Amino acid sequence: MAAEAAAALGAELPTVGPTLHARLVELIPELRGDQPIIDLLQDSLESNIALFVDSAVQARPVEELALPAAAVEYARRLAQCGISSNALARAYRLGQRWLLDWFTVELGRVEPDARVAYLAAARLQTWSFAYIDWVSERVVAEYEHEREQWLANQNRVRTTMLTDLLAGTVADTAAAERALGYRLRGHHLAVVVWTADTESPAQRLHRLERLVTRVAETLGATGAPFFLAQDRARGWGWLPLGPGRTGPDTAGLPRLVEAEEPAARLALGAPGAGTAGFVASHRGALRAYTVAVTAGVRAGRVTSYADPGVRAAALLTADLAATRELVAAALGPLGADDPAAAVLRETLLEFLTAQCSYVGAAGRLHVHKNTVKYRLEKATGILGRPVENDPLGLELALTACRWLGPAVLSGR
């Protein structure tokens, strides 16, 4: 009786197939609006039903079956379009349920003996579960293989296009946008993100990409960021900013990084517009990254190229030996890697930044102006000269100490 019901399903395929196909399209939102995918689903559905019917009628074990070509093509196309594998598996589960309901109705119609109908339904259920288990395992494997291959190819295309874009050799902006999947005609903020986390490479990169997404959300980005891994623990990203968003408030980012990924660090470029701004912001982010890496464990969670002093510090990283000589000559004992010396250096730098104003420095340091005077007297005593002597060299040396830390400081 079960084989007869399966054969009846085969005979009804021209009617059953379109009905089930329409139901699946209705129940799986990811498929709506993509006609080529919808057409492939129908081919896959009908070839699967035909194979199931043949195996049931002939009592062929699923191990002897060959996966329908249409089912393979459908799985691969879903992977290429970035549609979740859940949509793929769900179609098989929903299809099985619909067919079992069809068999129940058919058996009730043609078999008057309830016991015979029940046994036939149980047999069809066993066959359908065996078939769905076999076919879904294989089409999901095809999907995952195709997805890996497609992503690897897409990454190669994106990497090549990004390399050319950063080198200034891309003339077709629209082609670049299509390859990157990112709009270049807008304002951008570039980031470099890296971590010392000991998780597997895939997990590290996934978490870094997620962090860049959270940064984009926090800064009010107008769309999804563009992220591309550079190695196992570092990635580059770009955040799309809205019109006029040339200076987003990044003050809350250190807290965000601490909460989301404590082992991660961020380097930010200065915002820029258009393709030129996309490239320039990235260069700034790389320079800020160099400053942070040079500072090592003393670096903050976020280093921005737009922060006062970072541009100068980036230049000073080009020749660290010369920078150390500058620090030693300009600061002497005040260039020691020592907490007390660090307080005096910060006070002196803020004083110079405030154009030698005690009140201005006190406001920046959140201390009383008499505290500033006391610290400056102590600092100039160690220097052995007034700050007015070579203020530019002094400010460069202090900037190097603030941003580069132990890399340019002398031992205690």
From TrEMBL:
The lineage of its organism: Bacteria, Bacillati, Actinomycetota, Actinomycetes, Mycobacteriales. Residues 172-290 form the CdaR GGDEF-like domain. Transmembrane segments: none annotated. InterPro entries: CdaR-like_regulators, CdaR_GGDEF, PucR_C-HTH_dom, PucR_C-HTH_sf, RsbRD_N_dom. Residues 344-399 form the PucR C-terminal helix-turn-helix domain. Belongs to the CdaR family. Residues 20-158 form the RsbT co-antagonist protein RsbRD N-terminal domain. This is PucR family transcriptional regulator. PANTHER family: CARBOHYDRATE DIACID REGULATOR, DNA-BINDING TRANSCRIPTIONAL ACTIVATOR ADER.
